[in-house]
Amino acid sequence: KLLPITMSVLSIKPEERKPTILAFLMFFSIVGATITGSSARDTFFLTDYDRTLLPLMFAIIAVVIVATVTFYNRIASGKDLGHIISITSVIFIVTLAGIQLNLKGIMIPVLYVWVEVIISISVLQFWLLAGEIFNARQAKRLFSIIGAGGSIAGIGAGYGIKPFVTNFGAGNLLFPTMGFICLSIMFTWLLKPFRNKTDIRSKPIQRFDEKLSSSKSSSFDPYLRSIAIMVIIAAVSSRIIEYQFKITAAMTYPSPDSLAAFFGTYYMVAGGATLIIQFFITGFVLSRFGIIGGLLVLPISLIIGSVSFFAWAGIVTVFIARFADQVFKFSIQSASREILWLPVDKQKVRRIKPVIDSSIRSIMEGVIGILIFIIVSMEFIPTDKLHWLSLPVIGICCIWFWNNFRLKDGYVGALMKAIEQRRLNLNDIQFDVTDSQIVKTIDIALKDDDEFKQLFALDLLRPLSLLPFKETLVNLIESGSLEVRKQILNIAGSMTNIMDNEVILSATKRDDEASAAAITIAVDRSLIKISDSLLKNLSSDNEHIQAASAVGSLRMNIHGTQAKKVLDDFLDVKDEH
């Protein structure tokens, strides 16, 4: 009995239960492989290889990921995604097994880069597969639940690393990684019956060169430039903090087993915090403080963490900075970043978003990796004074902080423009979060004198809670045009918490189609007060009012003789025609 109750609480329909559970478990497996694989590669590189080369790994990863995605696109285009996932997963397992057998020398940096490739391709494939199983409306309800599988995997896998290395040693951490990849193959095939049979071919991913060439024909307006600045600063600051975190951890925990156990603890704590923030804090922050509240959380937390590490360099303070980066980046910041794209023209999003989120970000991660290597290798900042790297993080995060207010202003302008051009679609958001700025902007549109803008704004309300718009909707029922009032009654007429009985009764007193709709709603609510009005309306000159009152009278078992006569007269007229 517990499972059906849980599914009901989570708004998962009976036919969605099995694919949702399987997708949840598949993402759990992928993130489990990510956690164990990342812990293994970091441990091996930082304890058994030249850790001064770590920044170069960031640059190499950026280049390899771009090349891998380009190659993957060529071989996967037009082929069944299930087969592609299985084949690539088998390749991942075989290559990891080969590396495990010869885990020394050059194979250690190879593993470092290869694990990043496995993570990037696996996560990409999973969300493509999920897109074939769930439609947009289902995704909005279910993707946050499925994504929670990743956070739970972080908690479980992170917790399990310490006892694993205690019993088997850090050198065997790749075995659970391969095990998790095997599980993901199994779940891929179990999900096969639920995929969209009309579109099961692997969709091509835009190549790096195609992204850059297409972006040339799409100008970066100030709003998009602000988004790009945010992504660049986030990427740069994240890489610097990651470097500080890993080197400090390696100096604090010199043995492979203790370092691997520390990374496991970190992933466990980060996974738990991400889960809590994702479900309980993100929605509150965005609805209470708007998009600006969501955008400011990460830079402020990075400034606090970096100031702490600069003032009191140590594993605790750098843990705080890295923890804030990872937890907020994949919860509040991720949701806020996706909302920023909502008012942008869909064609422009398809051209520009991959350039900013993927190409530009990868380039900047590579550049900052090279710069860190030069700074450290030439001893401008020695490894025992890594806290000095916090100063540029603090500086660029202050720029990020200022840029977020530009973003907020640009977002408001873009929202208004999207409503005016009638191209805003709130169903594009893949989660149940609506920031206060969207609410405010739609409310302004509802109060506009332009009827078409009002009608478009009303259409936007369908997937949203109507409580923030209650006062405006009640006022429009009294003063709005016929079409606006009809639309409001269609959307909110059944909601007593929005349109109370007195509002509905008042709406029945006009002589038009909207009043006829209000009469039907009043009858649905069994409002006895409308009884006298129904009798009076049976002789109305307005056919809509007359018909609605006749049907309503019969449904309420009142004025039966008169109501039947009215309906018979309608039928007679229809027969004559």
UniProtKB/TrEMBL annotation:
One Gene Ontology cellular component term attached to this UniProt record is: membrane
Alphabetical keyword list: ATP-binding, Membrane, Nucleotide-binding, Transmembrane, Transmembrane helix, Transport
Give the species this sequence originates from: marine metagenome
Q: Does the keyword Nucleotide-binding apply?
A: yes
Q: How does it sit in the membrane?
A: Multi-pass membrane protein
Recorded hits in InterPro entries, A to Z, give: ADP_ATP_car_bac_type, MFS_trans_sf
* Residues that span the membrane, as ranges: 21-40, 52-72, 84-103, 109-130, 142-161, 173-191, 261-286, 295-321, 364-381, 387-405
Q: Name one GO molecular function term.
A: ATP binding
The keyword Transmembrane is annotated on this UniProt entry:
yes
The name this protein carries in UniProt is: ADP,ATP carrier protein
Q: Which family does it belong to?
A: Belongs to the ADP/ATP translocase tlc family.
Subcellular location per UniProt equals:
Membrane
